[in-house]
């Protein structure tokens, strides 16, 4: 209970085999198994978002920081990416899912009840409109252009080189 003369040395030992190199957080075997069962991106729509630590921060061969600094910054990067993503999805996922659901429902409703009936109506009306338009052009435009064509048919142009 007196003056301590012994020095205490605290060290963190990390095996390189247990350190995740893939860019994903270090998960227990149970979490990995549960994650493998649920493929939440089966079509690979967000494959471009799978960035790892090495994709963002890279040290050239001749310029290296201390190994412990590199390992701690890698761990902090992975931990912060994992935790911040979880917090943001906790706060934003439900409201954004509601907004996106409302937008897609409105677009589906408009497409089903407005766009498709309008297009079908146009396709039904267009053949009769085509008949009316052909009749109007046959009655008014064809005789006019035929008479103009006959008038200009008698015109001869001769170019002489003098």
What does this structure look like?
By secondary structure, the protein is mostly helical. It has 3 helices and no strands. The chain has helices spanning 29-37, 53-56, 67-153. The termini are far apart. The model has no long low-confidence stretch (mean pLDDT 80).
Summarize the structure.
By secondary structure, the protein is mostly helical. The chain has three helices and no strands.
Low-confidence stretches: none
Structural class: mainly alpha
Kindly report how far apart the N and C termini lie: 130 Å
Integer-rounded radius of gyration: 38 Å
Count all strands and give the number: 0
Strand content: under 5%
User: What is the global morphology?
Assistant: elongated
The biggest sheet amounts to: none
Helical residue percent? 55-70%
Mean pLDDT: 80
Number of H- or I-type helical stretches = 3
* Element order: H for helix, E for strand: HHH
Write out key terms for the chains shown:
single chain, 162 residues, mainly alpha, 3 helices, 62% helix
Task: Give the SSE layout.
Blueprint (H helix, E strand, L loop, with lengths): L28 H9 L15 H4 L10 H87 L9
């Amino acid at each position: 209970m007196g003056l301590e003369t012994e020095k205490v040395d605290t060290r963190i030992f990390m095996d390189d085999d247990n350190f995740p190199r893939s860019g994903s957080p270090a998960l227990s075997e149970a979490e990995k198994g549960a994650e493998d069962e649920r493929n939440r991106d089966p079509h690979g729509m967000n494959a471009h978002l799978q960035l790892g630590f090495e994709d963002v921060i890279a040290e050239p061969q001749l310029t290296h920081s201390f190994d412990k600094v590199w390992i701690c910054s890698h761990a902090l990067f992975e931990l912060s990416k994992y935790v911040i993503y979880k917090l943001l999805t906790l706060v934003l996922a439900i409201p954004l899912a509601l907004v996106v659901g409302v937008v897609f429902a409105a677009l589906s409703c408009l497409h089903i009840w407005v766009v498709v009936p309008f297009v079908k109506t146009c396709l039904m009306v267009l053949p009769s409109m085509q008949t009316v338009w052909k009749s109007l052009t046959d009655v008014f435009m064809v005789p006019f252009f035929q008479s103009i064509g006959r008038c200009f048919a008698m015109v001869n142009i001769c170019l002489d080189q003098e």
